[in-house]
Write a structure and sequence with these properties.
165 residues, alpha+beta, Alpha-Beta Plaits, two-stranded antiparallel sheet, 4 helices, 8 strands, 28% helix
Length: 165
C-alpha cells in the first residue's frame, strides 16, 4: 500500500570539509531517493550549538514531498549521511553532514527513541527556526499550535545565525 505524499521539512547542516558542496550533494540524493524538493531556504552560517568548541555550521532548510513512512524516511536520511561520510562519534560534535527531520506534515511521531517529530527541540534553536521560517513561516507546530514565525519571535536562543547572500 502506497502512502499519500506528505510535505516534510528537513534541516541540513555541515561544519567540516567543503560544506556547501556536501549539503548540495545531500539535497541531490534526497531529491533522487526520497522525493522532490519543493522549497529551499537561503544559506545560513550558524554558530555551533551544544559543543561550541568547533567550526561554525552552514545550514539550509528544505521542504520535500514524499510518500515514505517516517521510519523509512529516517533510514533513508541516515543512509545519505553515511554515503556522504558522516561518522557518528560525539553528540553535538563536528560533522560532514547532518540531516534532521523537523516536521512530517502535521503529524506527531514517536518511534521509541529513534525518531520524534516535530523535532523535540526545534522551538528552542535559532539555527533551526531561521531557515525554516523563510520557507515555512506560517506552518503550525502540531504540538505547540503556533506557527514558525511566532516561535521564532518568542525565541530566547541568542546563538549567532547569519543569512548569507
Amino acid at each position: 500500500m502506497q502512502l499519500e505524499c506528505k510535505t516534510v521539512y528537513l534541516l541540513l547542516g555541515s561544519n567540516l570539509g567543503d560544506r556547501r558542496t556536501i549539503i548540495n550533494a545531500a539535497v541531490e540524493l534526497i531529491a533522487r531517493q526520497i522525493g522532490p524538493i519543493i522549497l529551499r531556504s537561503s544559506w545560513y552560517e550558524t554558530a555551533a550549538w551544544g559543543n561550541e568548541d568547533q567550526p561554525s555550521f552552514l545550514n539550509i532548510a528544505i521542504a520535500i514531498s514524499t510518500n515514505k513512512a517516517p521510519a523509512e524516511l529516517l533510514t533513508e536520511t541516515l543512509a545519505i549521511e553515511e554515503t556522504l561520510g558522516r561518522i557518528r562519534k560525539d553528540r553535538w560534535g563536528a560533522r560532514l553532514i547532518d540531516i534532521d527531520i523537523i516536521l512530517y506534515g502535521d503529524e506527531i511521531i514517536d518511534l521509541a527513541g529513534r525518531l520524534q517529530v516535530p523535532h523535540p527541540r526545534m522551538q528552542d534553536r535559532r539555527f533551526v527556526l531561521e531557515p525554516l521560517a523563510e520557507i515555512a513561516g506560517t506552518v503550525v507546530h502540531p504540538i505547540l499550535q503556533q506557527n514558525i514565525l511566532t516561535l521564532l519571535s518568542s525565541l530566547n536562543d541568542n546563538l549567532a545565525v547569519t543569512k548569507l547572500i
